[in-house]
Design brief:
Chain B: InterPro entries: ARM-like, ARM-type_fold, MMS19, MMS19_C, MMS19_N. The complex is a heterodimer. By secondary structure, chain A is mainly alpha-helical. Chain A has eight helices and three strands. The relative contact order of chain A is 0.15. By secondary structure, chain B is mostly helical. The two termini of chain B are 64 Å apart. Classes of the chains: A mainly alpha, B mainly alpha.
Chain lengths: 173, 1000
């Protein structure tokens, strides 16, 4: 990790409880049944949605702090947009001069690369107006070649792996 | 030089002799000091030297003391530069005695040098260490030397500071711990002088911790530092608000940081303040007087409106440690928080008003309420009132903070239930409508259920629960027996009303379950209050059901009601029963209620004669006079011909549902409190016939069978003739009767039912380890060859040892330990042979054996878990797998039944627990396993979500239990295949796929 710390004292937000999916709340039958077992075998298709992608990236660690991206409000569910075969993720660096933005973006990209079906095209942007060199960062993050090259770098890959070290725990409830 | 080693050997034995005189001891030590050159001899020989000194220290300490300076000089010379861990252990022990008992004023520095050169210990024991000395042993021994004398203080502090700031994680931790034990010894004067430097070093560890553990240690050390400084002057500071020195500076520093409560540094700052709270009363008072008003001011300042949530969180953390500080000292001192109580309560009450700050405020209120003797009765009432306002408010917002709301109210209800009873309960129950929400009103229904859930979680405390029972049963009665104009509406569409009644019963059952789990003693008394009312409602409804629509006849309702009855009856303590028999059922004990025994008499009446008057007192009169005719019709002719009578004068089907309620009570009776029946065998016989010929749904059948098995379990010794009869007659007549003239389909269903009965009976016997159990199961086992029932029989074999809810300790059944083990051991080899060996002869039988095996194995670990016997199973399981179970199970994966597949995969998962890459049983099969699992997790091949999830879980486990080099060749395929699974239509499957892929 580089010696310089860009934001030594960031604001930490309390994480909201994962509110139930909208569809879950509405699906209220006449009888209260306490087993969801039967639901599992139902045939309806559950498409990949905003919340699911947010669940995938929320527990990535910030490269600078022992906090997750969710706690620092770097990512949030409304900042994820899902199309038919495309995903657009927007994130907010904690400070405008943050040199870690590219790394954060790279972590998000690697995580989604590993966890989404291949048919999706992933675009990652910093929130407009939240970073001083916004264009450069965006360009770097969405350039396939440069992402591939970055992942060849063992030191960088190691840092990314460290940020992703805890993402698995979110999956198992 | 050559003579030194043997001389030392001799001496080391001699010094142990009790006859060694002081003069000789003196000679020995002088000779050692004069002649031994430590650098010139090997470690074993050096060990002799240390042993000799150690022995002299033990037996001739006065001689060494008299020698004084000469000994110290000599010893320091000997000990200097020692490196061997074994020798060091002895050396540290000697050093501690020297430091404590000898006059070392002239040698502080040299002693310091020969000890602190080892600090911190970085020794790592070599593999196969002969002496078994661990790093921690050395660390502890050294630490005992370092804190042996205050004289080290001045010299030690700089060393500590240097090691803390420069060292690695382990060093930091060691240093912090050592400081924590040394500081009190070194004394408050030194601590005060060096407090600034120490604080600076500790601060760094707290605000920028390397890991949480270090942070914890640093906080602990800080606490000890503050304690050391201020404990001495505690008496003089007793009533002085002001405080000087470190605590003041540190406090100010933290409060400076707390000016930005939303920043990440605020958290460690609060932790430090909390730590101060746990030091001395005066420091705690001072900290509170600084921090609390500061936070309150911040909260009230309009500029900081956006940061109110973190302010409240920090504040509640502070008062939580204020609370803990007083409970620790357990004296009658007022909480240091007392002077600021009003302000804090005010701030939290304001916080309640806004949705964003609500949860934080609630957690603060909970802490306030749980602080002893802080809030007055009115203040608690005021808090309840404020919290109630949330409940009254928007239901969507309430739903977000329902948990903390309940926590606050529960905390208060433990101290002062009156407020909750008077304020909250009426509020909640008045929001429950008297009639059910209509079919389209899903919002209303949701609200009802939320209110009921809230009630069932809140009303756990005795007084509250009483209120709950009272209110809900009244409501239930109102719903089940509506007024006439209501009635027309309901009979048009009874289902919503039934669902509403179901909700109410469910809420009651939930509250009861919590109470039973918590072993609340007051549950038992509801056998007089709640149970009769429930019986009353259901029995009356059954009576009415002939003339009109009644809601309480719905089977789902009956089931929940049965659950409630079971919970109450099983909680009646056994002492009551014994007491009862002693009193010979004297009439004077009406106050003591009907206990189980008395209760069972009433119950028997109800079952045998249909007379429910004693057990169903309540609002409805009908239950008093009416007679249940569930069994009465069948009772007279005990024979199979009963069905013919039955068609003429039947009990109505709705009435037969009541059997579930009766059974729920019967299965939890004590052995001593059995039903008073004339002829138990005949009764059971009748019940079995009833199941087969009269009962019209599965619930009734199961209930009756539960009754049978539970009676059998308790009275098996008296019922041997009944069992002998069963064994032959019924098996032949109903199960094995191939030439049955009945249509095949009915026959199959019947045999299934009979299997169920056999299963229940076997289970009842098995749980008591009765020898007949085996015979019964063997019958089942014989049925494998039959095409139609083989499959079901096999499944039943597997289900027998699985845990159930009827014959359990909670229901006072006689349960023998290890019964499952015995059963499994006796059967596994037989099934095993069938599955493997008879490959050619009989495919049906083989499949059945395979099915039995999988369901059997699946129920083993669970059963073991329930009976807390985990140690018995792994060897068994290992063993079975070891004799090549795996290929067999893999073959089972080709069976079409989804349940079996997922059972098999679950078996693999269970076997994977406790496996390591070094010693894995599945390693040689990993290729097949991987391919099989991949096949089982794709949507195109497998339709069952459960199988896909299990397969993915197993894939995720594999890399942890099989060596990497074995799996590496498959990595690419697995990743590619899993990429396809990532596109599964089911969210839960995708989540497992992501997890599995991340692990690979």
């Amino acid at each position: 990790m580089p010696g310089e710390i860009f934001n030594p004292n960031p604001v930490v937000f309390s994480t909201s409880k994962s509110a139930g999916r909208q569809s879950d709340l509405l699906a209220h039958s006449l009888w209260i049944n306490d087993s969801s077992q039967s639901e599992d075998e139902a045939d309806d298709v559950e498409p990949i949605d905003q919340d699911e992608i947010y669940d995938l990236i929320r527990s990535i660690y910030d490269p600078e702090h022992p906090n997750t991206l969710e706690e620092l409000r770097v990512v949030s569910a409304p900042q994820v947009m899902v199309g038919v075969n495309s995903v657009k993720v927007e994130f907010t660096p904690t400070v405008p001069h943050c040199g870690m933005s590219t790394l954060i973006g790279l972590c998000i990209r690697v995580r989604l690369l590993r966890s989404l079906p291949e048919r999706f095209k992933v675009d990652i942007f910093v929130k407009p107006g939240s970073h001083q060199s916004e264009n450069a960062v965006n360009k770097q993050l969405n350039d396939k070649e440069r992402v591939a090259a970055a992942l060849e770098n063992p030191v960088l890959l190691d840092t990314v792996e460290q940020c992703l070290s805890n993402v698995g725990s979110q999956g198992i409830v | 030089m050559v003579t030194i080693k043997p001389a030392l050997n001799g001496l080391s034995t001699l010094v142990l002799l009790p006859t060694l005189s002081s003069a000789e001891a003196l000679m020995t030590i002088e000779a050692l000091i004069l002649n031994v050159k430590m650098k010139a001899i090997v470690q074993d020989t050096r060990f002799k030297v240390f042993s000799i000194v150690d022995s002299l220290m033990a037996f001739h300490r006065d001689v060494l003391k008299a020698l004084g300076k000469q000994f110290l000089d000599g010893y320091i010379n000997l000990a200097e530069g020692e490196k061997d861990p074994r020798n060091l252990m002895v050396a540290f022990a000697i050093a501690r005695v020297i430091l404590i008992e000898f006059d070392i004023s002239g040698h502080v520095e040299s002693m310091f040098n020969i000890l602190f050169c080892y600090f911190p210990i970085t020794f790592r024991p070599p593999p196969n260490d002969r002496y078994g000395i661990s790093t921690d042993d050395l660390r502890m021994a050294l630490r005992n030397c370092l804190n042996a004398t205050p004289a080290f203080g001045l010299l030690a502090i700089p060393v500590f500071l240097e090691k803390v700031s420069a060292g690695s994680r382990a060093t930091k931790k060691d240093t912090l711990q050592t400081m924590a034990v040394c500081l009190p010894v070194y004394g408050s004067a030194l601590a005060r002088v060096s407090s600034r430097k120490l604080w600076n070093a500790l601060k760094l560890e707290i605000f920028q911790p390397v890991d949480p553990e270090t942070e914890q240690e640093a906080l602990k050390t800080t606490q000890i530092l503050v304690k050391t400084i201020y404990t001495d002057e505690e008496a003089s500071l007793e009533h002085n608000e002001d405080i000087q020195g470190l605590a003041r500076d540190a406090c100010e520093e933290c409060i400076q940081i707390l000016k930005e409560p939303e920043k990440s540094q605020a958290k460690p700052a609060t932790k430090i303040l909390c730590t101060f709270m746990l030091t001395t009363p005066s420091v705690a008072r001072y900290t509170i007087s600084q921090a609390v008003p500061h936070l309150v001011r911040l909260f009230l300042s309009p500029d900081e409106a956006s940061t109110r949530t973190p302010i409240l969180l920090l504040l509640s953390e502070l008062i939580a440690s204020a609370r803990d500080s007083t409970t620790k000292s357990s004296s009658d001192v007022d909480s240091p928080l007392l002077p600021y109580k009003d302000e804090v309560l005010g701030v939290f009450s304001v916080g309640l008003k806004l949705a964003t700050t609500r949860n934080a405020a609630l957690s603060g209120l909970k802490v306030l309420a749980s602080t002893k003797q802080l809030l007055s009765d009115e203040e608690l009432g005021f808090t309840v009132h404020n919290v109630d306002e949330i409940i009254e408010g928007d239901s969507e917002e309430l739903y977000d903070s329902i948990e903390p709301v309940l926590e606050v109210l529960t905390t208060i209800s433990e101290i002062a239930p009156r407020h909750v009873v008077e304020q909250t309960l009426p509020l909640l129950s008045s929001s429950l409508p008297d009639k059910a929400p209509t079919r389209d009103d899903s919002a209303g229904r949701k609200k009802c259920w939320q209110t009921l859930t809230t009630l069932s979680k809140l009303c756990i405390q005795g007084e509250l629960f009483e209120q709950l029972v009272l209110r809900l049963t009244t409501k239930l009665d109102l719903i089940c027996f509506p007024s006439t104009q209501q009635f027309l509406l309901i009979s048009a569409d009874p289902e919503p009303t039934a669902a509403y009644a179901h909700m109410i019963l469910k809420a009651l059952a939930q509250a009861l379950t919590t109470k039973v789990k918590g072993k609340h003693p007051d549950v038992a008394k509801y056998i007089d209050r709640l149970v009769p009312i429930i019986f009353n409602i259901f029995v009356s409804s059954a009576f009415f059901s002939e003339e009109q629509t009644t809601v309480a006849t719905e089977p789902r309702l009956v089931q929940v009601a049965a659950e409630i009855i079971n919970l109450v009856v099983q909680s009646v303590p056994s002492e009551w029963v014994i007491f009862e028999t002693l009193m010979k059922l004297s009439s004077s004990n009406t106050n003591f209620c009907r206990k189980q025994h008395l209760y069972s008499i009433g119950l028997s009446k109800a079952i045998v004669d249909g007379d429910v008057s004693t057990i169903a007192e309540g609002f409805q009169k009908a239950a008093k006079s009416g007679r249940l005719s569930i069994f009465t019709v069948l009772r007279r002719p005990f024979s199979i011909e009963a069905p013919s009578n039955y068609s003429q004068k039947s009990s109505i089907p709705k009435e037969r549902n009541i059997v579930a309620l009766l059974s729920a009570a019967v299965i939890s009776l004590y052995k001593e409190a059995r039903l008073s029946l004339e002829d138990v065998g005949a009764f059971l016989d009748m019940l079995l016939n009833w199941v087969l010929n009269v009962a019209d749904n599965d619930m009734q059948r199961a209930a009756a069978l539960h009754m049978v098995s539970s009676i059998l379990n308790r009275q098996v010794d008296e019922l041997s003739s009944f069992l002998g009869d069963k064994l032959d007659a019924y098996w032949n007549a109903e199960v094995a009767n191939d030439g049955s003239p009945l249509p095949r389909r009915i026959w199959a269903i019947k045999s299934w039912i009979w299997l169920l009965i056999l299963y229940q009976i076997t289970k009842a016997l098995l749980v008591r380890k009765h020898p007949l159990a085996t015979t019964f199961t063997e019958r089942l086992y014989d049925a494998f060859g039959d095409e139609t029932i083989g499959w079901e029989a096999a499944k039943a074999i597997g289900q027998i040892p699985s845990p159930d809810t009827v014959l359990t300790k909670a229901n006072h059944a006689e349960v023998k330990i290890l019964y499952v083990q015995k059963y499994v051991v006796s059967f596994i080899s037989g099934i095993w042979n069938d599955a493997v060996l008879i490959t050619t002869t009989d495919p049906t039988r083989q499949t059945a054996a395979l099915v039995a095996l999988t369901s059997l194995i699946k129920s083993i670990p669970r059963a073991a878990y329930v009976h807390e016997m985990p140690s018995v199973y792994p060897p068994l399981l290992d063993h079975t797998i070891h004799i090549n179970l795996i290929p067999l199970l893999l073959r089972g994966l080709d069976l079409p039944d989804a349940d079996i597949r997922s059972n098999i995969i679950d078996t693999f998962l269970a076997a994977a627990e406790g496996e390591t890459p070094e010693k894995s049983l599945v390693a040689e099969h990993s290729v097949t396993l991987v391919n099989n699992m991949l096949k089982n997790c794709t949507i195109n091949d497998i339709l069952s979500t459960r199988v896909r999830i299990s397969a993915l879980r197993y894939l995720a486990v594999l890399p942890n239990i099989v060596r990497y080099d074995v799996l590496h060749p498959h990595k690419a395929i697995v990743l590619r295949e899993l990429a396809k699974v990532l596109d599964d239509p089911k969210r839960s499957v995708r989540r497992e796929a992501v997890h599995a892929r991340t692990i690979w």
